[in-house]
Amino acid sequence: MSAASTAKRRAGDALDIVALERGGHASYSACGIPYWVAGDVGDVDDLVARTPAQHAENGIDLRLGHEVTAIDLDRGEVEVADGGSGSGYRIGFDRLMIATGAVPIRPDLPGVDAQGIFGVQTLDDGAQVIETLASRKPRRAVVVGGGYIGVEMAEAMVRRGLEVVVVDQAAEPMTTLDPDMGRLVHASMEQMGIDVRSSTPVEGFDAGPDGWVRSVVAGGAEIATDVVVLGIGVRPNVELADAGGLPVGDAGGLQVDLRMGVKGHPNIWAGGDCVETFNLVSQRWVHVPLGTHANKHGRVAGTNIAGGYATFPGVVGTAMTKVCDLEIARTGLRESDARVAGFEFESVTIESRTRAGYFPQSRPMTVKMLAERGTGRLLGAQIVGREGSAKRIDVCAVALWNRMTVADLMDVDLGYAPPFSPVWDPVLVAARAAVSALQG
Asked: Which partner for 330 in 8, 22, 173, 382 could form a disulfide, CB atoms 3.0-4.6 Å apart?
């Protein structure tokens, strides 16, 4: 809808836009669903950025409950199934925008189809979880997976008063961090009363006589539960495009150019979680499913669809989340990423505070930083800490975007006042430690 709105705003009546959505909602924040479940967001309407009526007022023919089942590139048409009437039809296009997003990974394990096992991807998913919490009043929850959705839903269940077990096959939660930083997340979650079981693959699910899940089998043990949330991750939703003959890359997403055009197909565009994106640090095509990128992809694609010119230059891999009062952030490369990309580097980890140490509510934070040997260029940063920690990652993201060295970063004129930072901001302390490591 970002692409549709941008194109319509630029082209006006010269462009007829039809948007086909198989679900019952459009233009909503999927990232806000865990916070809706937790109770931070009071009403589902608060997550909707623009209603179907508003899109109609802007001249966009948005058809909810209409699923595209095939793309015919030769004829310039798509096949559509109308979920309301049960009928089908074909509609032609001069330009096609594909924004099919990503789909949650659902493991092929015994019992996975039992009732009470939820993915969290759409507003309908969130509504089902909330209805279950209200109607069945569960006491125990198992969250499978320790990534962004996993830790956010673990918090939501804790906030709802449930006993929570997080089961993850990885050595530590949050594999977008290095394992040593993941261990900090693990320890903090345990302190919050969350039972985190790492290096524990799930082997299956067991249901009771009513068909509702009652336990998770993991690591050779049964974990009793009343509800299960799957937070294993997502994969690009490219089956439709792949079947239509469009190119899919090694990272699993549609291959697009800088203008968000599908490679080799001048009238086909794509964006969001279904495409691959160029990582400016590793110089590799990757799949990074984030709403920030999706909205920018849509703006770029919509501009070009309407006859303008815009490009999406790439990403540096910035993301953040939280679990209760613990904030987690990262940008750039992990150590494993840097090795795969062929960099030689130094990594440093420092402990600091969110505010001046003497100021009330000063909280601890840990910053890890990677820098390239020889050039001193910043390669990545990770932050784990309490309130006031995560948004500091944006300083590192800007430094990565501009290919700054850690020596450059160490001298950046950041703001200081005791309520906000020590006299040496933690990011600057980490940069100074990286400079010393490179020199040493």
From this structure: 382
Could you give all domains of the chain from N- to C-terminal order, each with its CATH number? 2-101+235-305 (3.50.50.60), 106-232 (3.50.50.60), 325-439 (3.30.390.30)
Whether 99 contacts 198, CB under 8 Å: no
- For residue 96, the model assigns a pLDDT of 98
Q: Are strands 17-21 and 60-64 parallel, antiparallel or unpaired?
A: parallel
Across the chain, mean pLDDT equals 96
Radius of gyration of the chain (CA): 23
Q: Which residues of the chain have pLDDT under 50?
A: none
Q: Quick check: is 31 catalytic?
A: yes
**pTM of the complete model beyond 0.85:** yes
pLDDT at 92: 97
Question: One of 31, 274, 324, 396 is an active-site residue; which one?
Answer: 31
Task: Check residue 138 and give its pLDDT.
Answer: 97
Residue 118: strand pairing partners = 229
- pLDDT tens-digit map of 323-368: 999 999 999 999 999 999 999 999 999 999 999 999 999 999 999 9
pLDDT tens-place string over residues 233-280: 899 999 999 999 999 999 999 999 999 999 999 999 999 999 999 999
Q: What is the pLDDT of residue 200?
A: 97
pLDDT of residue 84: 85
pLDDT of 440: 85
